[in-house]
Design goal:
Blueprint: H1 2-16, E1 33-34, E2 44-46, E3 51-56, E4 69-74, E5 80-84, E6 86-87, E7 92-97, E8 103-111, E9 120-126, E10 137-139, E11 147-149, E12 154-155, E13 158-161, H2 178-187, E14 192-196, E15 222-224, E16 229-234, H3 236-251, E17 255-262, H4 275-288, E18 294-300, H5 308-321, E19 328-329, H6 334-338, E20 349-351, H7 357-367, E21 372-374, H8 397-409, E22 413-416, H9 434-446, E23 454-456, E24 464-468, E25 472-477, E26 483-487, E27 493-498, E28 505-511, E29 514-518, E30 528-532
């Protein structure tokens, strides 16, 4: 029966094509839910806001998760697309729909269960109500190394990795830990959270080492447990809790970069390309594709999956079951990425590089005009110092943000790692020093026309440079010292010094066309940045 579902969705995708929509639909109780008995034609749903349509069936089925259920959705301009639905308990199946265009929308369901087939619903998409939501994130066609939202709003990615975020607040619908934690991250400029769908345990903190160790987690995606999972049936408590986590990110306008699988965290996954594997991937698409703040990633450290054909199969499966066409990537699979194996299916490069950071980003940008993100290049130590750590490697806040500037100055995007929130040991109450440093990095670049800047090799005699020739230049020194800057501009430009650690700004005077020596402000040590425009 699961194969029937898979075939149905693939055929529907071929028949109707894909619609680049953006919007959301949420689980019952989070935003809204309609049943066929309601007068849904009068239902009004804001643009990019979630809504569920729920349908019930009393027929007895052996496994409700294997029931084929989907909906064909029609927009106000006649565009049609198909969404997979999902079983959510209590004889109820749902389809999550969202709209990126104001006007009249309708849907018709399809299923082998007569009670679920041919059901109709309608709603009117009204103006957006959440000003933090700008639609699905896209690659900027005019500046393909960067991102832009569906409504044209620019996006400077400042990512934060918290693999086990979903393991917090299990059994607490109000998310009493997650909500303040996300509020804090947002206040420090983090707008993009990287998290696993599920991870079981780490090898360096095996088992429960304390109350703050969430590996193994308190909840499991399937019935059974990790030792004896029943991959044919889902644990709805897990998925309904995960709904709340995704919705909490959505409400704040924070992107959710979901690592669909992870191979080095002791998870007993379904057999590759099995009906159970399809159920897992399709469930993620059905429950979350309608959220505009989603980004898909095949797997954390995807090189651990040795079968290229399987990775390609899963990428195609995601494409076939996500009509919103969210950005899709493959983390840290250098050999296949460098060979172009994923080019036809992925939208941007997501890597893990701890050395030769600039050199590798430059090569990745040169190979293909797409955004490049080095999302794992170091780990900030605990607030107690260099020996305060969960993993064997840590960096000081100053060293860590220095690496982040190297990423940014190569034209790439960066991600923050903290030893006590990155993996299964979670101390979200901590406020590490690096939070402020990373906030200042984002604020600096958002004050530039960063999408027009490109790495430049002949602008500075020291450090790294980005340039929009004749218009704007950024020079970053790992250690403040005199250097020569060379610009070619039709008129005099103004220079300003910026200290990445203190956020202090000092005028650097007039920068004339040609070469001239520049000296950082007296007393500055460590990182120093010159901004010329």
């Amino acid at each position: 029966m699961n194969q029937m579902i898979s075939n149905f969705m693939k055929n529907a995708a071929t028949r109707y094509g894909y619609v680049l929509l953006c919007g959301v639909v949420v689980a019952l109780g989070l935003v809204g839910c309609s049943t066929p008995s309601e007068k849904t034609s009068s239902l009004r749903v804001p643009r990019w806001q979630p809504h569920d349509f729920a349908f019930t069936a009393q027929a007895k089925v052996e496994n409700p998760f294997s029931v084929r259920f989907a909906a064909t959705v029609k927009g106000p301009d006649g565009r049609i697309f198909t969404l997979p639905g999902f079983y959510d308990g209590n004889n109820t199946w749902k389809v999550r729909v969202s709209a990126n265009q104001e006007g009249a929308w309708s849907l018709v369901t399809e299923s082998e269960l007569p009670e679920l087939s041919g059901k109709q619903a309608a709603f009117t998409c009204t103006p957006a109500s959440n000003q933090k939501i700008h639609g699905v994130l896209r690659v900027d066609e005019k500046n393909p190394h960067h991102f832009v939202f569906e409504d044209g709003t620019r996006f400077y990615m400042l990512a934060y990795e918290c693999d086990w975020l979903w393991a917090l607040d299990v059994g607490s619908p109000k998310l009493k830990t997650i909500n303040p934690f996300l509020n804090k991250l947002a206040s420090y400029g983090f707008n993009y959270v990287i998290l696993d769908t599920y991870a079981h345990d780490t090898s360096w903190r095996t088992g429960k080492t304390g109350d703050d160790d969430y590996g193994p987690p308190p909840i499991f995606p399937w019935e059974g447990d990790n030792a004896n999972p029943n991959h044919q049936k889902l644990n709805l408590a897990f998925w309904q809790h995960y709904d709340g986590v995704i919705h909490a990110l959505y409400e704040r306008g924070m992107m959710a970069h979901v690592l669909l699988k992870v191979y080095n965290k002791k998870v007993k996954w379904p057999v590759r390309e099995s009906l159970e594997d399809d159920l897992f991937f399709r469930t993620i698409m059905a429950r979350y594709a309608a959220y505009p703040n989603m980004v898909w990633d095949f797997s954390k450290e995807a090189h651990n999956e040795k079968l290229l054909d399987y990775k390609l199969n899963r990428l195609r499966f995601v494409r076939a079951n996500d009509p919103y066409r969210h950005l899709l990537s493959v983390h840290d699979d250098d050999a296949n990425n460098d060979a172009g194996a994923f080019d036809a299916l992925t939208d941007f490069r997501v890597d893990q590089q701890h050395s030769k950071i600039r050199e590798k980003i430059l090569k990745q940008r040169q190979r293909r005009a797409w955004p490049v993100a080095n999302v794992e290049f170091g780990y900030e130590q605990g607030i107690g110092g260099p020996e305060d750590k969960t993993y064997r490697i840590v960096q000081t806040p100053e060293d860590f943000v220095g690496r982040a500037w190297e990423v940014a100055m190569a034209g790439g995007y960066t991600a923050y790692y903290y030893t006590y929130t990155a993996w299964d040991v979670l101390r979200p109450e901590h406020t590490p020093k690096g939070y402020t440093y990373f906030k200042q990095l984002r604020e600096f670049f958002e004050a530039t026309r960063y999408w027009e800047l490109a790495p430049a090799e002949k602008v500075t005699s020291e450090g790294w440079a980005l340039a929009s020739p004749g218009k704007e230049y950024v020079v970053c020194l790992k250690e403040a010292r005199p250097f020569v800057i060379t610009v070619n501009a039709p008129k005099e430009l103004k220079g300003e010094w910026f200290n990445p650690l203190t956020a202090q700004k000092i005028s650097a005077g007039v920068i004339k066309s040609g070469s001239q020596e520049m000296r950082p402000p007296e007393g500055w040590t460590g990182l120093a940045v010159l901004h010329v425009r």
